[in-house]
Amino acid sequence: MTQILQGQVVALFAFDLGYKVSLDQVKDLLSSMPVQPLSGKKQTPNYLQYTRPPQVLNLGETDVLNTLLDQPGQIQAKVFDFGAASLSYRWPLTLHGQGLQIQDLPLLSQKLYNQNLEAHARKQIQSLMEKIQPAIIRPDLSSLVEDYYVFIFESLEQPLPAIELMAQHHSMLAQVLRFDTQPLSLEQQEEALGQKISYYENDLVIVDWNATIIYDQDYWDTFNVLELLNAELLEARCIDAQLDKRVEDYEGLVEKRVEWPIPLRTPYGQAIEALAELRIEASLITERVENSLKLIGDVYLARIHKAATQRFYLQEWEVSISRKLDIIANLYQLLTDRVSTVQSQTLEIVIIALILIEIIVGLLRV
Question: Residue-wise pLDDT tens for the chain (366 aa)?
């Protein structure tokens, strides 16, 4: 039995609030503070900071999980300038004044996952949006949400090197990451625990697709990177969904036969302009999200970032977005070319008609 002397479990929910958020206005509207800079304590080359540090707001307590943990949870919101917010629910891993056993965590993780906290989180975000709405450019709360769970072991009753923690609790750790109380197959265990990263012999980060286990007293930088990536994943999903809808809306125009337009008039003008704006907006949002945190030179956090990026399938989302932007570019070019062709033909007909009129007038005068 291994007892967690100090630890916590965090449930993260990322929401898209709108096109962009003015963090300076958020500070004026509500009591908030910028997130602490990344520390670089792992003694690696240091160039790692937020481009625009998100604002952190404390939203009070929650009694969710009171039957499982004997302390109320703390709710906190982190607002990013690229239009997203991350809501975190945080509970200490204690029951009856004592730390939980690692063996208790699979049941806790399963019950937490089945709590349907998303509905509660959405109400919290809606309330927050009402308070900071002047700071949000084109506010529009997306129906999409991205959840993620982090289990943090700050200290154990019997300190263990990472390799021994894995050896003694291999099956339990996999169950926690997969929110399951039944022992998993060896294949599933290896899949869940496949992304393991350590810096010292007594710290460990295990990244999975919907949860991470952190065994480290100095966990904040790792946690902040994961929270940001969860928000990035949400933004990728939102951009992808928006592009899907626009492609569906405008692909029908390609099948329509263009009517003969008045010269210098653009029949698809509104659609062409909307497609151009969509391409620019999607590119700008993607750029803001990708540039929100710089990890150049920090080997350890860059490894964490890479492992989480792979688990979140962010590269696949980026490929999908890039492909759909290409489709939109082709639609834009096709509509523009079609209009140019028809307008040229119309002008040619007008010129021919004028020449014929001039010839007829000339013949009538003879």
Answer: 789 999 999 999 999 999 889 988 998 888 877 776 666 556 554 545 677 888 999 998 887 766 667 778 899 999 998 889 999 999 998 877 788 899 999 999 999 999 889 999 999 999 999 999 999 998 999 999 999 999 999 999 988 999 999 999 999 999 999 999 999 999 999 999 999 999 999 999 999 999 999 999 989 989 998 999 999 899 889 888 888 887 777 666 655 555 545 444 555 556 666 666 776 776 766 666 666 666 655 678 888 888 998 998 888 888 888 787 777 777 777 767 777 776 677 777 888 888 888 888 877 776
What is the reported pTM? 0.83
Q: What is the dihedral of CA 281, 27, 60, 12, to 10 degrees?
A: 30
Does residue 223 lie within any of the structural domains? no
Q: How many whole angstroms separate alpha carbon 24 and alpha carbon 150?
A: 29
Buried b (16+ CB within 10 A) or exposed e, 109-120: bbebbeeebeeb
Dihedrals phi, psi of 182, to nearest 5 degrees: -95, 145
What is the residue range of 354's domain? 229-365
Looking at residue 60, the DSSP 8-state letter turns out to be E
Torsion sign across C-alpha atoms 47, 48, 53, 56:
negative
> How many CB atoms are closer than 10 A to CB 78?
22
Per the structure, how many domains does the chain have? 2
3-state SS class at 185? coil
Query: Which of residues 195, 218, 241 is at a domain's end?
Result: 218
